[in-house]
Specification:
Blueprint (H helix, E strand, L loop, with lengths): L3 E5 L3 H13 L3 E5 L2 H11 L3 E4 L8 H10 L5 E6 L4 H10 L3 E4 L4 H12 L2
Parallel strand pairs: 1-2, 1-3, 3-4, 4-5
Length: 120
């Protein structure tokens, strides 16, 4: 099973934290700094999971999620965002996200969620 994870966030500190923690847990990590780059990497590399911020330049996390679903990619999607309102969570799930985690977040919780999504 692939352990390739795409992480996308326009906040350099969060992106570095995500990459560091996931690599420590044995994942191969692709990093993107905006939604356009995230979608291009998803199409090209077909990661098992994409962890996407919602508020990103070029394409937001909802748009990237919808595009991943429209392309029929088997990538699982977790939205990781400060947008915690019920309408935002619903919007993310309606876009096709498999999970929704709000910031501030526990890196351990994110790791558990990824392990759950990648379970055979």
């Amino acid at each position: 099973m692939s352990r390739l994870v795409l992480v996308a966030d326009d906040d350099e500190d969060i992106l570095a934290l995500l990459a560091f923690r996931l690599e420590r847990e044995g994942y191969d990590v692709l990093a993107a700094r905006d939604g356009g780059q995230a979608l291009a990497l998803a199409r090209e590399r077909r990661p098992a999971v994409a962890v996407l911020d919602v508020a990103m330049p070029r394409l937001d996390g909802y748009e990237v999620t919808r595009a991943i679903r429209a392309k029929g990619l088997a990538t699982q999607v977790v939205l990781l965002t400060a947008r915690a309102g019920e309408d935002e969570v619903r919007r993310g799930l309606e876009a096709g996200a498999d999970g929704y985690i709000t910031k501030p977040f526990s890196p351990a919780h994110l790791g558990w969620r990824l392990a759950e999504l990648l379970r055979p």
